[in-house]
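Dear Dr. H.,

I hope your travels went smoothly. While you were away I took the liberty of generating a structure for the chain from your last submission, since the lab meeting agenda had it listed for discussion. I wanted you to have the full record in hand beforehand rather than looking at slides cold. The sequence, exactly as received, is reproduced here:
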Amino acid sequence: MQIQDIHQQFAAAGAKPRHIGRMTRAWLLGRDISIGRRQQQAEDFLPLSVREALPALQASLDGLVRLRSEHPGADGSARLLVELGDGQMVESVLLPRDGLCVSSQVGCAVGCVFCMTGKSGLLRQLGSAEIVAQVALARRFRPVKKVVFMGMGEPAHNLDNVLEAIDLLGTDGGIGHKNLVFSTVGDPRVFERLPAQRVKPALALSLHTTDAALRQALLPRAPRIDPAELVELGERYARTVGYPIQYQWTLLAGINDSQQEMDTLLRLLAGKFAVLNLIPYNSLEDDQYQRPQGERIVQIVRYLHSRGVLTKVRNSAGQDVDGGCGQLRARAELALGRRRAERSVPGAVPAR
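The corresponding predicted structure, in token form, is as follows:
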């Protein structure tokens, strides 16, 4: 469902533009749409026809997403397994310091080799209303002042819906433009479309390596843009909007944590309006990839930071609950498949 479908439902019930705006803002804040500004009751600001339709309108909004399960982390985060209206599942993450990570697709077509989401492929796009509904749901639990599009999916592959969601969140949603973060592997359309938007989000670019061949191997279906060219495109956007590019670098032991990589990275980011986010890989048992040792991570941060590259370590939220991107959904789908298989076998004992 799209945002315009929500607005059309409000209008069909007799809501005027001013009513639609108020009801939309209440929804985005995680409130009941019958409550107006300063706790106004519906009879004080909504026409009778709209008041009579409120239960159905609220039910339509509530049906966009629902909380399937919550997985709090020791770091103050909480991974939310969210079920969509058709039964598909995505993940949102409540982040420390009033942040929220949202999904833009069910699955992903890029196929990053270190990402659980990419292993499922792309199942479907999320509508713009389903994207912002994740924010409305999260705000029922805690304040949300920053939204990052770093959950399941490649936002650039659902560009129109993501940009529509960003526009609404940056206006009626009350979120500062630099606190809306669009994460991408580097689709060229991003650099054409984002500068022309009314709401210009911050940009996070998945770099992961300075070696073009290695990047293609790690991100097999990402656009074939040389890392140096990607940084130049990012720099141009950063100077346009006035806030730095975030470069994402998932640290994989023995693959992209070498001294040669760090030296090349220094040359690439020298003088750039940028922040480097090092993300130690969320290792699982018997995994093909592993995160570097803690000592090596500290060495890398000190080396880069002391030479002029602002470097931060961003551990994937919820690592203590095995909650890396796509892992909750994968476990839920596996459990659902097992239950279905058990129901199809006469006399089977359900798994616990």
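Two observations you may find useful: The longest helix spans residues 327-343. Residues 334-341 have pLDDT under 50 and may be disordered.

With kind regards,
E. W.
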